[in-house]
Amino acid sequence: MTAPTGPTASTTTSTTPTASTASTPDVDVLHYSAFTTRPDGGNPAGVVLDASAVADDDAAMTAIAARVGYSETAFITERDEAARRYRLRYFSPLAEVAFCGHATIATAVALAERDGPGELVFDTASGEIRVETTADGDGPPRATLTSVPTRSRPADPGTELEPALAALGWSADDLDPALPPHVAFAGNDHLVLAAATRERLADLDYDFDALGAVMRRRGWTTVHLVWCETAEGAGDGSTEKLAFHARDPFPVGGVVEDPATGAAAAAFGGYLRVLGLADGPTRVRIRQGEDMGRPSDLLLDVTPDDPRSRVSGQAVPIPRTGRGTDPEAGPCTTPRTA
Q1: Phi/psi at 96 (nearest 5 deg)?
Q2: What's the pLDDT at 118?
Q3: Could you report the per-residue pLDDT of 123-149, keeping only the tens digit for each?
Q4: Using H for helix, E for strand and C for coil, what is the string for 16-79?
Q5: CB 3.0 to 4.6 Å from 69: which of 76, 225, 267, 329, for a disulfide?
Q6: Mean pLDDT calculated for residue range 231-237
Q7: Of 183, 189, 193, residue with least CA distance to 156
Q8: Each residue of 243-255: pLDDT tens digit?
């Protein structure tokens, strides 16, 4: 996802979605949870496989996204079915956003379930995103997105790092000196901060308004907070050196935390590449959402000679409960509390 460009984000009341499809007068919205094999895990997204009726109506798509209540809803506004190429737009409940990783994975899985696995091409505001979908036996399809070229640079100590740490309630001693603060990009910008301990990462209690203000000034989508642990070999030809736990505050979207952030994972791949931590084909496992009760699993593949990142995950429909076609409105993420 990327930061909304509309007015200052407002908050909504969190409720659990209760249906897999919401009907509007013009479109049907599928409900999927991405980076998980369970509907109660991962990050939910709305998916509109045919948005032709509202393709030229940004206000209508924003209203649909607000009604769904998730951090993002993806809309296919143009299509070439023979080429499996689609124009994909993303809307938060507030405004259009340039790119959203978890909604991309959810859309790709929905198309794979409808049309069969294979390669898909999404034209987004951030650029062309290719997604390979495969069937994993009896489990849900897996989707692997290839990002736009990534980049990463050190965060400015005075204008970026200091105000972000103050808003988080962290000190410089809370950071891992082996993983310096950076601003990383893979379609949008994310501040990357590595916690020195798992306990520091778990204790997330920040100033919502202050961090949101810093992020809006700097144009950041999320603050990608990570803690590193060593992983075993992947056993599939890649070198799995690293596993991370991650948390992503998202106050610019009106919620405290995102449970699975594919866009931030892709940017993080660029960060690892710039730091030289991917000196060969490297697979990184990212566990997110655990501290908020929505565990999510993201696989990140990085190679030193390719500036693009590959982010993989599964997605599952959120089932109906028999109480109608509309889900209860509410974000998939932790809402801001009063």
Answers
A1: -70, 145
A2: 97
A3: 999 999 999 999 877 789 999 999 999
A4: CCCCCEEECCCCEEEEEEECCCCCCCCEEEEEECCCHHHCCCHHHHHHHHHHHCCCCEEEEEEE
A5: 329
A6: 51
A7: 183
A8: 999 999 988 877 7
Domains of the chain: 21-143 (3.10.310.10), 151-315 (3.10.310.10)
Question: Which pTM was predicted?
Answer: 0.86
- Alpha-helical (H) ranges within 194-254 are 198-202, 208-218
* Predicted pLDDT at 277: 92
Instruction: Say yes or no to pLDDT of 327 above 70.
Output: no
3-class secondary structure, 326: coil
Three-state SS for 10? coil
Rounded to an integer, the average pLDDT of 227-253 is: 76
Q: Is residue 65 within 8 Å of residue 330, measured between CB atoms?
A: no
- E-only strand ranges, the chain: 21-23, 28-34, 43-48, 73-80, 85-91, 96-97, 118-124, 127-134, 142-146, 151-154, 182-185, 189-194, 220-230, 239-250, 255-258, 282-288, 296-303, 306-317, 334-335
- CA dihedral angle for residue 17, residue 8, residue 78, residue 35, rounded to 10 degrees: -40
Question: Using the 8-state DSSP alphabet, how is residue 196 labeled?
Answer: S
Let me know how long the chain is: 338
On the CB side of 288, CA atoms within 13 Å amount to 31
Contact 221, 263 (CB under 8 A): yes
Contacts of 129-134 with CB under 8 Å at 24 or more apart are: 129/88, 129/99, 129/104, 131/104, 131/105, 133/108, 133/109
